[in-house]
Amino acid sequence: MEDKKAYTEAASDSDTQDNSRRNFLKQSTLLTAIALTPGTAVKAAELRVDEKIASAFEKMPLKMEVNGVTHSLSVEPRATLLDILREQLDLTGTKKGCDHGQCGACTVHLDGQRINSCLTLGIMTSGKKVTTIEGLAKGEELHPMQEAF
After folding, report:
1. CA 89 – CA 71 distance, rounded (Å)
2. How far is CA 103 from CA 28, 59, 78, 148, in A?
3. Per-block mean pLDDT, blocks of 10 residues, the chain (149 long)
4. What are the helix (H) ranges across 67-137?
5. With contact defined as beta carbons under 8 Å apart, do 76 and 88 qualify?
6. 64: which strand partners?
């Protein structure tokens, strides 16, 4: 009988040690996996959170003329003209370069004046005429700027 009692106590101590070892291994494995997770995966998770926050913003109506065609859109107040042109109107000729207004890749004409579309909020262009690189051509004849590309 005493042998059974001693065996039960020894088994109980052994289980406790195994559990603590298992828990240690589980926790250390998890911490290692988190530490080795690439930054791109972390950024992707952050972007999903940003999208959820962005969806909470109320969209505003925007009416503007782009390359001679009038568009009525619903845009977020914080969306740039560049993002609206590329994502909602599928006009990808205007490029996102530095996103700081230094490179000029996002240049468009707004009522005949040259602007950086990455620095202009889309809602500020309401009722105005926007000309992108796609709108410079006269029919089938390319504009010299388009030919340069």
Report:
1. 9
2. 46, 29, 21, 17
3. 53 58 80 71 62 68 94 92 94 89 91 94 94 84 74
4. 81-83
5. no
6. 71
Tokens linked to 96: 């996102």
Amino acid in position 109? H
Hey, which residues does 71 pair with through a beta bridge? 64
Q: What is the pTM of this model?
A: 0.60
What pLDDT sits at residue 9?
55
- Angle made by CA atoms 140, 145, 148, in degrees to the nearest 5: 95
Provide the CA 5 distance to its chain's centre, in angstroms: 64
Tokens 């009038």, residue?
Answer: 70
CA 33-37-42 angle, to 5 degrees, is: 130
3-state DSSP percent of the chain in helix, strand and coil, to 5: 50, 20, 30
Pairing mode, strands 107-110 and 129-131: antiparallel
At 21-57, the pLDDT tens digits run 888 887 888 777 777 767 666 666 666 656 666 565 6
Point out which residues pair with 65 in neighbouring strands.
70, 129
Residue listed under structure tokens 């505003």? 60
